[in-house]
Records
---
Amino acid sequence: MNQYKKVAFYTLGCKLNFSETSTIARLFENVGFAKVDFEETPDIYVINTCSVTENADKKCKQLVKKALKINPEAFIAIIGCFAQLKPVEIGNIPGVDLVLGANEKFNILDYIDEKTKKLEKSQVAFDHIKKTNEFIPAFSVGDRTRSFLKVQDGCDYFCTFCTIPLARGKSRNASIEKTVKEAVKVAQTDVKEIVITGVNIGDFGQGKSDENFYELVKQLDEVEGIERYRISSIEPNLLSNEIIDFTLKSSKRFVPHFHIPLQSGNNDLLVKMRRKYLRELYAERVLHIKSNREDCCIGVDVIVGFPGETDEQFMDTLDFLKDLPISYLHVFTYSERANTTAVKLGDPVPMEKRRERSKMLHILSDKKKRAFYETQVGSERTVLFENEEDSGMMYGFTENYIKVKLPFQETFMNTLQSVRLTEIDRDGVMKCELIGVPQTTN
């Protein structure tokens, strides 16, 4: 019998981290551990960290304190990107027992056995990121209505603001055949929607002619038992017209929703960021999407306050986004990251100015989202409802990523329902009415 019977997980950061946490949780469950919530006094905590923003680093330290408050005797393991970048620093956080880098995290059970006790000094196991070249497949199930399917890991781009290549290594993936087998595993659960995730998913195959993201998308589309696929963030230079045309015109299962990082609408800054495109290509991609499907939802990542960003350059970004038919923004305030080229550029933007610019883009995002929602009022859509109740209501998303609410009905949980979108609530969520007799999809 395991000395530790209960294990809890906490995930910081991206969808990729969620897929990996879920896979690691299954490793624990397969050898007899019970997965419990964070507050249920577990014997082991596994915290999967992110290092995209400074706040994620701080959140990790806060979670360790919270875990020790719940159970001062708990064994605490830290994995993920922050663990790879700053293993010694994390090992010195009071209460941390184990730190595992990118190579070691999927072997966590090798470090946790019946002999494991609270240690006077934390155990740190990590290798140089250049040695991280194995692709470990992962997908999430059980935590949410949808599954995050990891199809790619690492990145070869080395954008000047980003630590991900240092935390996850070079771009790599399994074969299309093996990736499709993972999707089949998800299809055998009650999951209705797969979100395709990775660090740089468009780089799948690393440019090979027969094993690339376009070919992967076409083969995933043939997997029976999955109602929907949603593509998570994909670089504009890798989102080819053939991918757009297939997913929006020919596909049986891919939904009309893209999330495309922009980062800046000023070409000089894009060059400084070492991005692989200029704003003209970005605009071309967006307009091509809209020429295929006017109702397609398009999300955008933007960074404000990059070193040297002038008022004029920021206004370039603001004006560029105002004119584009996009649906919402994810706004990131630039934060200095060790071992990146950007910190060496000098000319930092004052934090107050960064916050001011962030606020302006958040306001624009709200307007864009409202305008997009308004174009969809009266349309008929299919909503995948979530597995939870919230103050007598239930929520879900249409295929084109409109958040919808309906009075809670238990039989609708994790089902696809046909609805007509009626009006936007004051909280920015779309009200709807059911069409025809409610039915549950298999």
---
Amino acid sequence: MKFGNSFDIVKNVPDLATLGRRIRHYRTAAGLTLDELGRDVDVAQSQLSLIENGRREPRLTLLTAIAARLGVTVGELLDASPPSPRAAMEIELERAQVGASYRELGLPEVRPSRGMPDDVLRALVGLHREIDRRARLAIATPEEARRANTRQRLRMQRMDNYLPEIERLAQDDVGAVGHTGGALTHRTVSLMAERIGLSIVHVADLPHSARCVLDLESGRIYIPPASIPGGHGLRSLALQAMAHVRLGHGEPVDYEDFLRQRQDASYYAAACLMPRDPAVAFLERAKQERDIAIEDFRDAFGVTHEAAALRFTNLATASLGIRLHFLRVAGDGAVVRAYENDGLPLPVDATRSTEGQIVCRHWSARMAFARSTRTTEYYQYTDTPVGTFFEATQTGTTEAEEFSITLGVPYQESRWFRGRESTQRAASRCPDLSCCRRPQGDVAERWAGRAWASARVHAHIFSPLPQGTYPGVDDRELYDFLESHAADGDRPAD
């Protein structure tokens, strides 16, 4: 059976609350009391009550007996939709009261009894929706985002940035469509999507806050047009959307859950584009030849330099025994993304977050910007308070800014890498402010009170994330997009 078929089956199975409501609905319609139905199917009335209240899962044999007595099919009992609008509100209220947002209030649980008027039930459900909405506003604050991002980075550091279960899943999925080696083509990605009941559709009107959209109802993955510059990244977008299905993701419960899902989806995509076995074989050969180079790894699998460097961080420690660090740094020196398990003293704030912090001017990540020729990697040894590191940096430019991608290792590991013969060497004393932050005393005295600079305003500092189900994505824009494409004839990607 194709995974897509099994996914459809799982998607349509009700939870216990819905199953219990459906049993109660059909029992009431049949004019039976709990005691009468329990007697007819040979189960205690108390046990049947637990089933109807969603507190116990019935055995299949019991479910079959109940269906036969009520004159319905087992399939009708297992339908995933609530049996009535009233039941839908009752289920929503029960789910809301077991959520973290409500439990934190310390208030008692309110059971939606049969005697509760519909307007009271509707008001309670409305209040819980507002509590949930306000909780989502809180998780979108920059402060919480930074703390959650730090926890995620430290989690991956503890695991050496390696997730074996996702590695196995990705390798199985790539192998299942007949891919044996080389760069993963758009066609292969489309076959992988078809295998789980999805099709890839290129659209030009994606919500500005979303890179891609997965519509489970229609089985479509919406991604940008194939003709956009750097369209090779579209394979990764489609694979990340597929990952949410393959990994069983639901709506994130908080920002940390959202980050974990995004991290795992990105990991799955990278593990598909650069499957573990051929990638490790390639890197082991390069290590034996003492010629590891991210640019070669990049070209062998047809990915971006950043994607190759990040994938190397997944495999280097687990498969090659090499500890390392990775940095993406903006042109102004601010950290965009970072990972290390080699002790590099990353700049951090009070929350231990490194994103947004300024790296030392003497690190390779910033020294590389000073080169007039940037077509090749820049190699440098950097002395720090905790030891010397060898780093290879590639610079690049987007429409918005320039950036650098750095892959570095402790000095003793440099023997495996291309560029180790570099004579470029710099010394960094950061986080000592006298290293590159604090101006020299005589220079500061010379210009104190004699100059004024107008700072470049970083608008993102004042802009909260769009507040929606998925942090950073505008719900109104997203749902309008889905509605506009729900019934159209979008053509799947070739």
